Amino acid sequence: MNIVSSSIPSHWFWLLWLSSALIGALVAWRARWSMLTDPRNLNIFLGATVAILALWLIKAGIKPGLNFHLLGATILTLMFRPMFALFGLGLVIAGITFWQGEYAAFAPNLLIMAVVPVAVSWAIYRLVDRHLPNHLFIYVFLNAFFGAAIAISAVGFASTGFAAFSGVYPMQYLLDEYLPYFLLMAWAEAFTTGMIVTLLVVYKPEWVATFDDKRYLEGK
Asked: What is the pLDDT along the chain (220 residues), one digit of tens a residue?
């Protein structure tokens, strides 16, 4: 996670938690919970969530609150659509929050590390789905590869802005020592996401809710 409790201004606390509560209410209201009543779907969802948790635990950092790790948010968004992607990332953030004891940091981390990348990934998917032909290459390259790169870049900008405007680190320091490395991770995020999504749509297309082999493969 990128935010620690000590970096949160006290006057931001309630706004951040209110925003997170609204996101939680939206997920509770809009998610199709009946999907998880199927043991197969439940196992796939939990397995993907645990895999993302393992991905987040492989991290590096330069100072408190300035960490780097792959996200996997685009993968969850393409596999389960945005509501369950938010739910899965929320579980990951909750687990790490309790493990590290950074309870006050749950809300900003949820907003920056889950809401931002899922929203970006879903927006890119919707634009591609609406305006471009249904083709496997377009799906993988734009939704998975390009979408993941833009999503993690958006998280980098959001994290930089939060750290700067909260007064924890000077903006110039963040622009020189933090944001450039975050943007470099866009390639790793894009490559990992593109590779995993390609394997899934080839071997397990039924695991990817946004992919339909009849639309993207038949007659192409």
From this structure: 567 766 787 888 899 999 999 999 999 999 999 999 999 999 999 999 999 999 998 887 777 777 888 999 999 999 999 999 999 999 999 999 988 878 888 999 999 999 999 999 999 999 999 999 888 999 999 999 999 999 999 999 999 999 888 888 889 988 988 888 888 889 999 999 999 999 999 899 999 999 988 787 766 5
Q: How far apart are CA 199 and CA 191, in angstroms?
A: 12
Q: Is the domain defined by 5-216 classed in CATH 3.90.550.10?
A: no
In the structure encoding, which two tokens stand for residue 169, read together? 């680190």
Integer Cα distance of 207 and 7 in angstroms: 38
Alpha helices in the chain (DSSP H): 13-30, 39-57, 73-100, 106-110, 116-131, 136-138, 147-165, 171-177, 179-203, 213-216
Q: CB atoms < 10 A from the CB of 103, how many?
A: 11
Spatial separation of the C-alpha atoms in residues 74 and 51, rounded to whole Å: 13
Rounded to 10°, the helix 73-100/179-203 angle is 120
Per domain, the residue ranges of the chain are 5-216
3-state SS class at 196? helix
